[in-house]
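Entry 14. Structure prediction run on the chain below.
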Amino acid sequence: MSKAKHKGTIDGVLLSKDADTVRLQMGDYILIVSHDLTLGWSPKAKDASWPLTGGIIIALGNDEFYVGGTGLVISFKSVKDGERAGILQVDEGVFVNGKWQPGRRLNGDEDHQGRHLRIPVGEYGIQRIKLYNYK
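Output returned:
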C-alpha cells in the first residue's frame, strides 16, 4: 500500500496486485483507493496477477467528488479530529455536452451499507458522491 498522501482537487490512480491501495487527501477527507479485487469476493482475487485498474477523482468541494474509472473501491475518513465520514448519496451518471446527467441512485447494496464507493473490475463508469462528517 502506498503511504503517500496527496492534497488537491484532482488526482488519478493506477492499481495492480503489487500496488493495490493508495491514500489521497482531498477536501476534508482521506480517500483510501483500493483495487476492486482486494475485497476478495471474486475468484480472480486469488490469481497470481490482477488486471490494471484505475481512475480519476475530481473534488467539486470539500465533500463532493466525481469518480470515473474501473476496478476501484474507495472508502473515506475525515481529517477532522473526532469525526467520521459518512456517505450521503452516490449517483451513477454520464456527461452530455459537458453537463452532468445523473442516472441511478445507488443504495446500500451498491455502497456496502455506506462503507465505500465501488466500480467493479471490467465495468467503466462515473459516480458522483456526496459525503458528510459526524461525531
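Confidence is low (pLDDT under 50) at residues 1-6.
Filed with the rest of this week's runs.
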